[in-house]
Design brief:
Elements: H1 2-7, H2 26-30, E1 35-38, H3 43-53, E2 62-65, H4 71-82, E3 87-90, E4 93-94, H5 96-102, E5 105-110, H6 113-123, E6 127-134, H7 138-167, H8 171-179, H9 186-196, H10 207-224, H11 229-244, H12 254-269
Parallel strand pairs: 1-2, 2-3, 5-6
Antiparallel strand pairs: 4-5
Helix pairs in contact: 7-9, 7-10, 7-11, 7-12, 8-9, 10-11
């Protein structure tokens, strides 16, 4: 995403804790910036980084949080920044590495319409689908609900593959049929062919982050007073997989966890 902005002619000052940025601290990177973009693991980290950069931000600056954050954290941060004359919009993305690389991400934006208008020249270099979802925090809520559906579909796709293999079906033929039928989703179209069949398990999106996003969706539902048994069970499965798998596991390694449940059951029967 940073490369896309450089190619578009924007002057970038960057910070990354892995040392790949142009400046050693968030504050130094933010010096003189009109727009500060964050792309970080969660809202707590976003808050720490933005507060570290805040002394360097001029009144009238705009912060764009493109992370997957908790809407409650986002709204609290927005209120804090307003007191310093700094605006905030939440603009999480969907599309994974491939769409980030070619600038075709889907971007869901929560916040003031005037702030979005100001951000649009930047966002348009990163994504082709830009949705104004409403007030501050609604972009992050939309992203969490989208990722919940992706997480649930991942479980269903992997389970269908495991059942089909056990029954004796050709896994590749099964997936081809599903992708020509009503059961297809991003897991059957991309994750299974690219990650499971190849053994790569390297989608670039960690299992812990998927669990985090499903947890945000669950918290939103709970605060809204909506009963969501399927959402709760989806979160339970991702939490269990995180406990069983190695730290930093790719989210497609959920397949290994689901496969291990069958082996464990067989061992108990034996």
């Amino acid at each position: 995403m940073a490369a896309r902005l450089v190619q578009a002619g924007f002057a970038l000052r960057t910070f990354d804790k892995n040392g790949s940025g142009t400046h050693p601290t968030p504050r130094q990177a933010a010096e003189g910036a009109d727009i500060l973009i964050t792309m970080l693991p969660d809202g707590k980290v976003v808050g720490r980084v933005v507060r570290a950069a805040l002394p360097a931000l001029r009144r009238g600056s705009l912060v764009i949080d493109m992370s997957s954050s908790d809407p409650a954290d986002t709204r609290a941060l927005g209120a804090e920044l307003r007191r310093h004359g700094v605006s905030l919009i939440d603009a999480p993305v969907s599309g994974a590495k491939a769409k980030a690389k070619d600038g075709t991400l889907a971007i869901m934006v929560g916040g003031d319409a005037a702030a979005l208008k100001r951000a649009r020249p930047v966002l348009s270099k990163l994504g082709t689908e830009i949705f104004h979802t409403g007030k501050l925090g609604t972009g992050h809520a939309t992203k969490a609900l989208n990722n919940y559906l992706g997480a649930a579909g991942t479980i269903a796709g992997f389970e269908a593959l495991l059942v089909g293999k056990k029954f004796g079906l050709d896994p590749r033929v099964l997936v081809d049929v599903i992708n020509a039928s009503t059961g297809k989703n991003s897991t059957t179209e991309r994750k299974i062919p690219q990650q499971i069949f190849t053994g790569a398990f390297a989608s670039g999106f960690q299992l812990a982050l998927m669990k985090k996003d499903v947890g945000i969706a669950n918290a939103i539902a709970r605060k809204a007073g909506i009963e969501t048994p399927y959402l709760r069970n989806t979160l339970k499965i991702w939490r269990a997989a995180e406990r069983r798998l190695a730290a930093g596991a790719d989210h497609t390694e959920l397949y290994k966890y689901l496969a291990s449940l069958t082996r464990s059951r067989a061992s108990r029967r034996a």
